[in-house]
Specification:
Blueprint (H helix, E strand, L loop, with lengths): L2 H14 L5 H12 L1 H6 L5 E5 L3 E6 L2 H22 L5 E6 L7 H9 L1 H12 L18 H12 L7 E4 L6 H12 L5 E5 H13 L3 H9 L3 E5 L8 H16 L3 E6 L11 H7 L3 E4 L5 H19 L7 H10 L4 H18 L5 H17 L2 H11 L4 H5 L5 H17 L4 H7 L5 H17 L1 H15 L1
Parallel strand pairs: 2-3, 4-7, 4-8, 5-6, 6-7
Antiparallel strand pairs: 1-2
The protein binds adenosine-5'-diphosphate (ADP) and magnesium ion.
């Protein structure tokens, strides 16, 4: 085949493949993401242009783009790839919506509250599988559990109820269980502080604070998760404080969770801390061995029912998993899932040695890699001061390592984009998105970059 021919063929292939059926893709989005996420976000995406290896999609606003990119992009790409394998990138173009579109006008002009409500329903739905029945009691959580139940019996006796504890210890599970328990007879609002912030900003931008206030203040049970998120955000704290006071005044029950005791919240106004501490503060501690074993056994039961097959783990293996997984229950369940997946695939009863091998990677990854650690390793690797890497200076010898560190933080930790941004001297999440994109692209094109990243990753895993 001569050169010309190959070229022709390539062109032909890309023409041939230019058949992505957008309606089909949308249908698959709806199936994968569920109709609520689809209707509020993904439905508004249109296909602008299709290339062999990437797509240009349009979204109505910058905010929309950032939201979609930070939450759904990976899965979206996975979906479109399932229709056309050669795609490896998606770009977004902001195309303002046609204001004469009647649906939109309706939402914008007449239905502002419904919009907040829909969005709460999308993201802050109570999860039916996080209930009291499957919350297992142990020494570390019995007080928190018992007061969570008491709150359900006597609304506003313990007000606010403040549940604190480290990550993955069951706070969200308890909050959710309270919500489920109370929702049939009360107007329950369950929201994460981060999401509260999202609505707050959105309402300011749209000049719509009246509806925001109304909406949150009409609940009779107000549950807010991860309140530590409001640190440093003065105007949000102000708004939260007023919401809090007005709910307390009318006798609504407030339940709050945080990763620490109210008095230890940093960069939170003193008056807010003392109001938070003014009701009942209970904490959840790290689980002891006994609780971990109970949880493992319960999960195995659940999975047996789910898969309708026998899953056998020896007591030795159960003990091993419980012992190795030291810090939190989310991690424990993650590890257990891996072990069970292995037994199901290989259809065998695990020995302790199999188990050690499976878990070697998991534990090293879970335990070691934090954003701090990534920042240290990357700045050492490039031989620059950590303070310079985090500074606002934009010269390339500092900006590239900074972007690489952000990229690795996204890939190797479970931190969200805004969280990563905050750890890089309070940068915006869009900066992180940009970094991730840039480094993804460079590591595909540039061998030197690929090598650097691999070396840094193995330093982190050492
Ligand atoms: P947190 O909000 O404190 O970070 P979560 O509530 O998200 O933690 O809990 C992490 C995972 O562990 C969830 O899957 C939750 O269902 C599970 N979990 C935590 N504590 C218990 C418990 N006592 N019994 C059963 N599952 C638990
Ligand atoms: Mg939580």
């Amino acid at each position: 085949m001569d050169k010309n021919n190959i070229k022709k063929q390539n062109v032909y292939i890309s023409e041939e493949e230019k058949t992505l059926n957008w309606e089909e893709v949308r249908a698959s989005f709806e199936k994968t993401f569920g109709s609520e996420i689809y209707n509020s976000w993904l439905q508004k995406i249109s296909l602008v242009k299709e290339y062999n290896d990437y797509l240009i999609l349009s979204v109505p606003t910058r905010f929309f783009r950032d939201w979609i990119v930070s939450r759904y992009l990976d899965k979206i790409l996975e979906q479109v790839k399932s229709f056309k394998l050669s795609l490896n990138r998606i770009e977004f173009k902001i195309v303002e919506e046609n204001k004469s579109n009647t649906d939109l006008v309706k939402i914008d002009e007449y239905n502002k509250i419904t919009e907040i409500k829909d969005s709460i329903l999308n993201y802050n739905r109570l999860n039916p599988s996080l209930n009291f029945e499957n919350f297992i009691q142990g020494q570390s959580n019995e007080i928190a559990l018992s007061y969570s139940k008491k709150v359900c019996e006597h609304i506003s006796r313990y007000n606010p109820l403040y549940i604190c504890g480290g990550v993955g210890l069951g706070k969200t599970h308890l909050l959710n269980a309270i919500g489920l328990n109370l929702q049939s007879e009360n107007n329950v609002m369950f929201i994460s502080a981060e999401r509260f912030m999202y609505h707050f900003i959105k309402s300011i931008k749209k000049n719509d604070m009246v509806n925001f206030k109304d909406f949150f203040r009409k609940s009779s049970v107000f549950i807010i998760d991860d309140i530590q998120f409001i640190r440093g955000k003065e105007s949000l704290q102000e708004e939260f404080f007023h919401t809090f006071n007005s709910l307390m005044d009318k006798g609504s029950q407030i339940i709050i969770s945080a990763d620490r005791n109210p008095m230890k919240l940093d960069r939170v106004q003193e008056r807010i801390k003392s109001r938070l501490a003014g009701g009942l503060v209970v904490d959840i501690e790290a689980p002891d061995l006994e609780l971990k074993i109970k949880i493992i056994k319960k999960k195995i039961e659940e999975m047996k029912n789910q898969f309708k097959e026998n899953i056998d783990l020896s007591d030795e293996v159960i003990n091993y998993v419980a012992n190795e997984s030291k810090t939190n229950i989310r991690e424990l369940i993650g590890v257990l899932n891996r072990v069970i997946a292995f037994t199901r695939v290989h259809n065998k009863i695990l020995t302790i040695n199999d188990c050690k091998n499976i878990l070697k990677d998991v534990f090293s990854q879970i335990k070691v890699i934090t954003v701090d650690k990534i920042q240290n390793v990357v700045s050492n690797y490039f031989n620059i001061a950590l303070s310079d890497m985090l500074s606002q200076r934009r010269s390339r010898p500092l900006a590239r390592p900074r972007q690489i560190a952000m990229y690795i933080a996204k890939k190797m930790t479970t931190r969200s984009l805004p969280e990563i941004g905050r750890r890089f001297a309070n940068r915006d999440h869009t900066t992180v998105i940009h970094a991730v994109k840039t480094i993804t692209r460079l590591s595909e094109q540039d061998d030197e970059m690929k090598k650097n990243i691999n070396q840094i990753k193995s330093l982190l895993l050492e």
